[in-house]
Amino acid sequence: MSKAGEETDQLKALQETIRYAATHSAFYRRLFSKLNLNPDSVQSLEDLRRIPFTTKDDLQKENLDFICVPPTKIIDYITTSGTLGKPVTVVMTEKDLERLASNECESLRCAGGSENEIYQLMTTMDRRFMAGLAYFLGARKLGAGIIRVGNGVPELQWDTIRRMKPTALIAVPSFLIKLIEYAKAQGFDPADCSVKKAICIGEPIRNSDFTFNTLGKRITESWPIDLYSTYASTEMGAAFTECSAGRGGHYQSELLIAELIGEDDRPVGAGQEGELVITTLGLEGMPLIRFRTGDICVAHSEPCICGRTSFRLGPIIGRKLQMIKFKGTSLYPPAVYDILNANTKVNNYLVEVTTNDLGTDEVLVRIGTEVPGPELEKELTEHFRARLRVAPSIRFESPDRIRVEQMPEISRKPILFLDKRH
Q1: Topology of domain 323-419, per CATH?
Q2: Which end of the chain is more exposed for a tag (fewer CB within 10 A), N or C?
C-alpha cells in the first residue's frame, strides 16, 4: 500500500476510535467535554495533537473509567506488570482477542515464521499476563505448532526440546543464558538441537546501532541461533517485531498511530530520541488516545531490505521515569545492565537508586556472586567508568538473596531496578 493510502486508512480508523472513545469511555467523555472538543473536529492525522496525552497516572487512578464495554462483552481480563507503579487492568472483547491474534501472527511472520514452525513458549499464560496469551493466539492463527512450557525450570525446557523438537523459542533473553549455562553444566552443546531461532521479549538484545549488546553477544557466541527482538506493551495490544535484517521492530500502522515526542512534548526530528506515544486503533474494550508509554527510543524511516515500507522502532533506550542523574551524568538502567551482563562472575544483580541528603541520585549496584572481593569490585568499577564515565557503589550479596528479591511471588518477570527516590 502507498504511504498516502496508509495515511487515509489510518485517519478513518482514528476518527472511528475517537468517536467511539468519546461515546463509550467515561474518562474520554469527561475529557472532551471539559476541553469543549468535538470528536468530529479531527480531520487529519495532525489534528490528533490537539488532544491531550493520556498518562499511566490517568490509567492507575481512573482505571475502570477507560473501559468501554459492559461485563457481558468482556472475554479476558489482563493486568499490566506494574513496573512503574500500581498495576492496571486491561479488558478484551472477542474482537480485541482476534486483533491480538492478528498482530502476533503478523509479528511471527515478520520474524520468518510460518505454519511449519514449532514454537516453545517460555513465558507464562497465567497470572493475567498478556504476552503468553498473545503468542499462543498468534501461533494458532499462523497455523504453527506451539508447546506451552511456561517460564523457568531449565531441565524441563531442555527435556521438552529433546522430545518435541521445537524450531523456535519465545523467551526472555536472560533466560536463554540460563539454558546455555545448564547445558554446559550437563556437558552438552546447546547448538546440538532442533532450535534455530528465538523471539526475545522483555529485554533488549541490541544497541542503538543494531549490533548485539552484551546479552545478545553472550547468547549467540554460545548458541548460534537467530535472535529476533520484539517490543510491546499490554496497553497497546500490539508489537513491534524485527525481521531477519535485525534493523528495528516493524510498525503495524493498521493497529496503532505512533508518535515520538521530546522534552517539550513536540515531535522529535528524524533520528532523534523521543518518548513513544501511541493511539490504539480497532480496540473495543479499552482504547487509548495519545498514551505516553514512558519508553525512550528512535524511529527509523529508511526502507528495509525485507521490502516493508513502514517505519521501524529502534531498541528501547530506557524508561523516562527511570532516568538516573548521577554525578552530572544522565543514564538509563539498561546501560548499567549491559556492563553487568558482560561479566561471567556476576550471577545476578539489582540496581537500587535513592535520594541523598543533597537531593541528588545515589546508585547502589547489589551484586550476587560466588567470588566477592576487591578484585571483582575493581574490575567492575573500571568498566563502569570506561563505559558510563561514573562508577556507582557496589555491594556483594549471595545470589540466592538477590534471586528472592528479583522474583517475588506476585512478579511475572525479573525485577532489576529498585527506584527508592523521593
Answers
A1: GMP Synthetase; Chain A, domain 3 (3.30.300)
A2: C
